[in-house]
């Protein structure tokens, strides 16, 4: 992705040194490509999904091969400029920012120059130094060609530019019912069918730091992604096609930098608001939003139900755990911690004791005490559901749930 200026002249012996070095680099193109892509991702602070990495690697490999061919035959045509224009057009069509493309070209020039120096060795370094001006001009010519093609393609795509794409995604992911005309216009702009298997994912805080996830539209494994990056929320609308939610989760996982909620699959574009609400509820079930946990709505329905109905959650907490919450903190928390650990340990008192660093008899005592206070049995499935949901409501800090027992706690504490 860098070339020497055609006007740069060296004698035949010097030229043979550069030609030999260029030929040796052709063998190393795969290695140079991996180095360039990895360093670009590191500098940009992004994580590249497998398919995105393959696409970017293909572009970089083509650029490097064309640049090396120009180094080898400086008096021929300029394949590097043709490839640069192709890369610029593709970069714009994918909705990626121009400044990142220019940074990629600068980095490619650095990688190739360092590789040339290594290839010619100390004996040829002096010869190569005479061509540094031509190499710099080559970098400038390539990046200029890429930028020009980028702007031309971006102009042709208007009104399908990034701003219009972002607005169209906003219409579909507003969380509010949009009028039919607005949905139809957004679907047309994004080239999305009205009927299809759609799902929405949400991530907070503002992320994901991934090239694919940051801008516009991308495709992965037959799925079509429409990404919308916000100040405090990142959203993606996905046309699944024949892919499963498991396949979508697999693609999303390396892009996730924080907790992510995945909504239910819906059958029409007009229903994506339902998937958005489900994704937001699923996200709220994550206990630590700073870790890359992925929560799927279809796997957290009971928890989502509690979060979706805070008034009912209040009633549930008051009815089931009211007597427990009325205890002083030093008595209340060990009971709740034990119930939580016992549920996590799938009903094993031994495993619960190990998790809490206490004796098994202590666990059994606390569980008996809990059953006495709640008038519910851990051996009765319906009672167990009540206890688990009420505990989750308390632990999730559902609005109003903890306050429901506050008067009782204050009265007990002051007694």
Automatic annotation (TrEMBL):
InterPro entries: CdaR-like_regulators, CdaR_GGDEF, PucR_C-HTH_dom, PucR_C-HTH_sf, RsbRD_N_dom. Residues 30-162 form the RsbT co-antagonist protein RsbRD N-terminal domain. Pfam families: GGDEF_2, HTH_30, RsbRD_N. Residues 335-392 form the PucR C-terminal helix-turn-helix domain. Residues 175-285 form the CdaR GGDEF-like domain. PANTHER family: CARBOHYDRATE DIACID REGULATOR (PTHR33744), DNA-BINDING TRANSCRIPTIONAL ACTIVATOR ADER (PTHR33744:SF1). Belongs to the CdaR family. This is PucR family transcriptional regulator. It comes from Cryptosporangium phraense. The lineage of its organism: Bacteria, Bacillati, Actinomycetota, Actinomycetes, Cryptosporangiales.
């Amino acid at each position: 992705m860098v070339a020497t200026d055609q006007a740069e002249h060296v004698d035949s012996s010097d030229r043979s040194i550069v030609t030999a070095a260029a030929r040796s680099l052709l063998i190393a193109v795969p290695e140079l490509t991996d180095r360039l892509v990895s360093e670009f991702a590191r500098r940009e602070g992004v994580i590249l999904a497998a398919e995105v990495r393959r696409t970017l690697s293909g572009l970089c490999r083509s650029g490097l091969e064309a640049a090396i061919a120009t180094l080898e035959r400086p008096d021929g045509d300029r394949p590097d400029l043709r490839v640069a224009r192709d890369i610029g057009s593709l970069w714009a069509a994918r909705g990626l920012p121009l400044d990142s493309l220019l940074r990629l070209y600068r980095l490619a020039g650095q990688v190739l120059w360092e590789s040339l120096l290594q290839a010619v060795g100390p004996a040829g370094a002096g010869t190569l130094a005479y061509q540094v001006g031509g190499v710099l001009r080559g970098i400038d010519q390539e990046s200029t060609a890429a930028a020009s093609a980028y702007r031309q393609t971006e102009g042709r795509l208007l009104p399908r530019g990034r701003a219009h794409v972002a607005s169209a995604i906003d219409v579909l992911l507003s969380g509010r019912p949009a009028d039919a005309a607005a949905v139809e216009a957004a679907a047309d702009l994004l080239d999305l069918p009205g009927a299809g298997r759609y799902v929405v994912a949400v991530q907070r805080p503002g992320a994901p730091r991934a090239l694919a996830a940051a801008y516009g539209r991308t495709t992965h494994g037959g799925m079509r992604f429409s990404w919308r990056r916000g100040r405090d929320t990142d959203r993606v609308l996905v046309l699944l096609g024949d892919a499963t939610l498991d396949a979508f989760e697999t693609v999303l996982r390396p892009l996730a930098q924080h907790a992510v909620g995945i909504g239910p699959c819906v059958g029409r574009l007009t229903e994506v608001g339902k998937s958005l609400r489900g994704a937001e509820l699923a996200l709220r079930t994550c206990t630590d939003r700073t870790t890359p946990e992925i929560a799927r709505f279809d796997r957290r329905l009971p928890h989502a139900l509690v979060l979706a109905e805070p008034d009912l959650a209040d009633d549930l907490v008051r009815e089931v755990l009211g007597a427990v919450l009325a205890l002083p903190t030093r008595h209340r928390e060990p009971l709740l911690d034990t119930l939580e650990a016992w549920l996590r340990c799938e009903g094993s008192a031994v495993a619960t004791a190990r998790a809490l660093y206490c004796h098994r008899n202590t666990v059994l005592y606390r569980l008996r005490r809990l059953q006495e206070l709640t008038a519910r049995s851990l051996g009765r499935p319906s009672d167990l559901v009540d206890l688990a949901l009420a505990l989750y409501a308390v632990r999730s800090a559902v609005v109003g749930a903890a306050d429901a027992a506050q008067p009782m706690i204050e009265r007990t504490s002051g007694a």
